[in-house]
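Fold this sequence, please.
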Amino acid sequence: MVNQSAQFSKFIELKDVLVKGDGATILNIPHAIIPADRITACIGPNGAGKTTLLKLLTGLITPDSGEITYSFAPAKTALVLHHTPMIKASTRANLSIVSDADPTITFNQINAILQQTGLAHLADSPAHKLSAGERQKLCLGRAILQKPNIVLLDEPTANLDPNASEQVEIMIGQFKTKGLEVIFSSHQLAQVQRIAEYIVFIDGGEIKEKGPIGPFFSNPQTQAAKRYLHRELPRK
């Protein structure tokens, strides 16, 4: 058997992981190595278990059985869900909220994130009046402030217009220069092809296929992946 972990400088290993809910199996992963040293996209049909996997990797939920181990320490993750609530306060206050858990975060660091995300001019504006794209950039900035190794993003550009989506994609691409790796879920396969380096394909709560992005799209190895791509990609 090929030692998959040898391919990656950092990785997450799942063994005999089982997650159940409402009497049904949501995730069933006997064994998987997921790279944590490159931008990885989790794709698959609605209800496949992508969001559950992200929550599992960040520790927001725990498996009913099995274990998850990280090849690196400290293994610190930040999760940005598809719908992240805002408190009724300014943009700056919503960004600063992570300092409640980490008092080492400084005023200057918060200002730097406001500049980086292009939200400095909206610092004193009510967060609930931000556009969907601006709120998403705020959430990404909040994740960066947590100083994680890995940022996990659930459908990071869902319901955004093309301009806002492009800005978010640029931010995701810039994470690597900050020493951050990204694992994200997406239904937008054109986006996945633009920014991802590795694919984890989930169907029916199981990881059916994974590997570098090029071979996955050009020559998928499983019938499940072939059906999914045939259904989702525009026909030429």
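The chain is about 30% helix and 25% strand. The helical segments are 50-58, 91-96, 107-116, 132-145, 162-174, 189-195, 213-218, 223-232.
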